[in-house]
Amino acid sequence: MKGIYWIASYPKSGNTWFRVFLTNLQQKEETPADFNQLATDGIASSRLMFDRFTGMAASDLLPIEVDRLRPRVYELIAENAEENLFFKIHDAYTYTDDGDPIVSRKATLGAVYIIRNPLDVAVSYAHHLRISTDEAIRQMGDPDAAFCSKTQRLNVQLRQKLLTWSRHVTSWVDAPDVKVHVIRYEDMLERPMEIFGKASAFFGLEDDRDQIARAVRLSSFAVLKKLEEQKRFQETPIDVPSFFRQGKSGNYREALTFKQIEKIILDHGSVMARFGYDAKAEA
């Protein structure tokens, strides 16, 4: 049976950029891939995919019932796959009420987990959701945080438990019986050839340096911004002007107050330090 590689991250941590790289790597073209036709296989929380493989409408089920069926959906997808698959996922590595990993150990080959400094995540997350920075920081520290959990309208995605930023990170990187390759967003920026090359090797894909360099070049933020000027990226929220903003690290220094920085470090300092992020607030 083929299986699934998960491209996992907390929102606004570089997941889309990484998937653009994979698409350019696999297409082997000299022009940038269409970011609305990524070669990866979708998002794990797709409601349409769930309905198709279960033969039931997720809207007729309780969230706990949906979660209980999600591992089987991924197993069916893997069983019917002709080659290994790559799925984006923002869910934390959580479990059903039966104690099964929501992503299914049976269907999973491994995961790349992309981590980004939460100080920068807070700024990008607030922009993406069109909420205040204080609200973004609050959500990042909320153990019950979830995407698409509101019931006022039907969402194209299923509920995704995010937990806190810290618990999201540790849920994946410390997940038992799962091969996880951890990537820091900042290292993707500073050492793209090395970082993308190691990720490609983890997946068993292209190891030709010229091909990796081509894919890195065609996936740069400058290229993505230019593409976005020509047409809208389909994953951009309706009321957000652009998805690809700056693609930099350290922007929090101009965007966050000392009090906001202090709050993020208070909430997440131990995990920040574990992954090499400065967990000290400077006045």
What are the defining features of this structure?
single chain; alpha/beta; four-stranded parallel sheet
What would your notes on this structure say?
The model has no long low-confidence stretch (mean pLDDT 88). Helix 2 crosses helix 3 and helix 6 (165-173) packs parallel to helix 12 (258-274). The chain has a single domain (4-117, 136-235), classed as Rossmann fold. The termini are far apart. It has helices spanning 15-27, 47-54, 63-80, 118-129, 133-140, 165-173, 185-190, 192-203, 209-218, 221-230, 252-255, 258-274; strands spanning 4-9, 85-89, 108-115, 146-147, 160-161, 180-184. The chain has 283 residues and is of the alpha/beta class.
Nutshell version of this structure?
The protein has 283 residues and is an alpha/beta fold. Helix content is 45%, strand content 10%. The protein has helices at residues 15-27, 47-54, 63-80, 118-129, 133-140, 165-173, 185-190, 192-203, 209-218, 221-230, 252-255, 258-274; strands at residues 4-9, 85-89, 108-115, 146-147, 160-161, 180-184.
Topology:
Elements: E1 4-9, H1 15-27, H2 47-54, H3 63-80, E2 85-89, E3 108-115, H4 118-129, H5 133-140, E4 146-147, E5 160-161, H6 165-173, E6 180-184, H7 185-190, H8 192-203, H9 209-218, H10 221-230, H11 252-255, H12 258-274
Parallel strand pairs: 1-2, 1-3, 3-6
Antiparallel strand pairs: 4-5
Helix pairs in contact: 1-9, 2-3, 4-5, 6-12, 8-9
